[in-house]
Specification:
Layout: H1 8-19, H2 25-32, H3 36-48, E1 67-75, H4 80-89, E2 93-98, E3 105-111, H5 114-122, E4 127-130, E5 135-136
Antiparallel strand pairs: 1-3, 1-4, 1-5, 2-3
Length: 138
């Protein structure tokens, strides 16, 4: 079985859904210059061929499992790798990403309460500074 080739319209539809997974087909249609049914048909075709899949995630806060927060970390010089590994080894860390720019590491953590997330952010020994108000992203 050969893979389907996605054209410019398919990519435009996927970019719109990537920006906002709940965007109405009418908005995508207006932005691409096609009818909303064309958008729906193209998306149905991409899911039917397996080129596109949708995944649902359970939101921990709604399940009574605490909060999820994003930490933005600026590391001491030469400590980026050590900081990222230390964050990744923590049981409350869901993901760690290394970046370039003013901030070096982003970590998604889970905590039972917002207060605990803030406390966790304030006590990172390998970090020069951490964005002091972790924002809940879910």
């Amino acid at each position: 079985m050969t893979a389907a080739v996605l054209d410019d319209l398919d990519h435009a539809i996927l970019r719109a859904l990537h920006r906002d997974p709940r965007v109405p087909f009418t908005d995508i249609a207006a932005g691409t210059g096609v009818h909303e049914r064309t958008v729906a048909r193209r998306l149905e075709q991409m899911t039917a061929t397996g080129e596109v899949r949708f995944t649902a995630f359970l939101v921990p806060e709604h399940l009574g499992e605490g909060v999820t927060a994003e930490l933005a970390v600026r590391c001491r010089p030469g400590r980026l790798h050590e900081t990222a590994l230390a964050l990744a080894r923590r049981p409350d860390t869901r993901s760690v990403e290394v970046a370039t720019g003013a901030l070096d590491v982003f970590a998604e953590i889970s905590a039972p309460t917002h207060e605990r997330a803030h406390r966790t952010a304030r006590h990172r020994p390998a970090a020069l500074s951490i964005y002091d108000n972790p924002s809940t992203i879910r």
